[in-house]
Amino acid sequence: MRPSDHHLMKETVLRSRDEAYLTAVVRNLTYANVVTLLVWSVWSAALSRFDLWLWLRLLACACVFFLSGWAADRLWYRLIAGRLEKPFAMKAYTSRVPFHFAITGSTATAAAIWILPEWSGSFFTQFLIAGSIACVVQVPLQLLTFNRLRKTALTEL
Prior knowledge:
By secondary structure, the chain is mainly α. Helices cover 80% and strands 0% of the residues. It has 6 helices and no strands. The protein has helices at 3-15, 21-47, 52-79, 90-94, 97-115, 123-156. The mean pLDDT is 81.
């Protein structure tokens, strides 16, 4: 593909229905609900106590986590993608990882410290853990979304 095709594809992806704000927010809130339900049910079963307040706080942290991952991707598109010759090349795609690590790591850490203060420890340790989890979670999610949208964009070119 030519560099002009990459930039045309970027614009197609950004205008796609799947990347519209409402669709993206609903998608990320769905991810957050599923993860929260899994974590909460395992945690509650281990404690033999189902605490609705804990579920709500976990849900708030998961929403911040998933939405900040999506926001990191949007920020990458706005700040970096336009400066790259081929923004959909694998080398360019790997430049998203620091955005996911830093943005999701810091926002998830801040949310966890604010929403779940009993679980807070060292800010730096939580940042490293949240950033690592962000890379493990967000990179495959964004890659799946990226591949699906790339196929859509290529057929529309």
